[in-house]
Amino acid sequence: MRFWPRSLIGQMLLAVAAALLVAQAISAVLLWRAADSRRDQAALNTAAFRLVTDNVRQTRRDREALTDRAERRNGRSDRGDRRRGDRRNRLLGAGQTGGFPHVLRIERSDASPLLTGEKREPELEKGLTSILEREGLAVDQIVVLERAARSDPFVRSRPRLLSRVSQQSNAKMQLIVAGIRAPGDDQWRIARALKPPPPEGAARSIFLQTLLIYLFLVGLLFLLLRRITKPLKALTQKTENFGKQASETGPMEPQGPEDLRRLITAHNVMEARVAALLDEKDVMLGAIGHDLKTPLAALRVRIESVEDEVERGKMAASIEDITHSLDDILSLARVGRSSLPPEKAELSALVGSVVEEFEDMGEAVSLAATSRITHPVYVTWLRRALRNLISNALRYAGSAEVSLTHDDARVVLTVEDHGPGIPEARISDMLEPFTRGESSRNRDTGGAGLGLTLARAIAEQHGGTLSLSNRPEGGLRAEISLPSAGSAH
């Protein structure tokens, strides 16, 4: 299956659409990563706040403990008991809050929070260090990692907390675990903060946004490319029509971008010059044909006065040879210059009439398989090409077999013989002008070498090809292959 289009607009649209798709995919990934980074930063800030708050509380507790000891020495221990009772009440009140994040209190541990198989987050560690330094909290060691809430040892050691985690709507709840150890402290202080889950439908929102932008850009690009390539398509069509037939359609109006306008203007100038040259060639060929055929006709009359029949026959043959060569040259120069469009013809009838002409002359020409095919052709020219192929087969093999076949892709006229064929190295050369199967210039053994060249030019005039190949059982096969544009019956 072919995925790469052939047209310019198709190739440009596919290439740019693919580039836009890659760019939009990268943009979507970057947006998702930026959102994930913001959620990481929010959780990190929460963990940092808890560590700083715990440090402040620890400092306050240390000061209160010093004050209590001083008061007990002075006999005022009741004040310390009252403060401890107030502090205990505040802690109990804090523990009674029903929000899930509040139960993730600071944990003290002798070991680092990093478990086997887990990876540290260097970027988050740098961020936490920066926050703590701004708050004046000295840190000797720091570890930050991301962990699934359900696999956290602190959560799993508390059944009620684990149950609460399991009841959350987001089964993939993540925690940011931050552990620090202060200088001179032999224990780690570990803070846990819930990483905010992505907003519901965030992935779908990013996908839809990316898809809408992509469709808008591709649609806009398609309209722009169609506007640019429309005059180019018209120019291509005009050039193809000019190549097929010299019809006077007038110059094409320049349109489109400046580059295309200049191209169309240059094409109009070139087409006008080519048409003028072709017209001059036709006039020149007509003059040559008239100026040469008139004296040849006069010579044909004069040789009647030659008494020697043998010499008179040789002279007449020479004049006939010159006349045929002149006709071939003029036909080769004029092929493709018809100002009339091709006409639909029944090809089997055309082939049959050509075969009958040779049969009437006693030539060994037979008609093989044929199909009833209606196809637009230049009847006179195609008849001429078929005659040339049959004459070539009769000249070198003494017989010819003609067939007509077709399929969905092409129509094929085939002429086969049982002669010696052509050496493989010379097959392509035989289609060139003045190339013959043997080196003599005797018309009885080879003619002027223009028959196959003219047949090839006629096939190309119809948008087809002429091919030569040696048959495995011996002989030559010549095929005129035309694109299947007619209807088969």
UniProtKB/TrEMBL annotation:
Membrane-crossing residue ranges in chain numbering: 206-225
Enzyme class: transferase
The keyword Acetylation is annotated on this UniProt entry: no
Comp. bias intervals (Basic and acidic residues): 60-84
A Gene Ontology cellular-component term: plasma membrane
Keyword Cell inner membrane (UniProt): yes
Location in or out of the cell: Cell inner membrane
Signal sequence, start to end: none
SUPFAM superfamilies: ATPase domain of HSP90 chaperone/DNA topoisomerase II/histidine kinase (SSF55874), Homodimeric domain of signal transducing histidine kinase (SSF47384)
Histidine kinase domain ranges (all copies): 287-486
Region (Disordered): 60-98, 465-489
PANTHER family given in the database record: SENSOR HISTIDINE KINASE ENVZ (PTHR44936:SF5), SENSOR PROTEIN CREC (PTHR44936)
Topological type in the membrane: Multi-pass membrane protein
Pfam families given in the database record: HATPase_c (PF02518)
Protein name in UniProt: histidine kinase
Gene Ontology MF: a single term: phosphorelay sensor kinase activity
The enzyme's E.C. designation: 2.7.13.3
Keywords assigned by UniProt, alphabetized: Cell inner membrane, Cell membrane, Kinase, Membrane, Phosphoprotein, Transferase, Transmembrane, Transmembrane helix, Two-component regulatory system
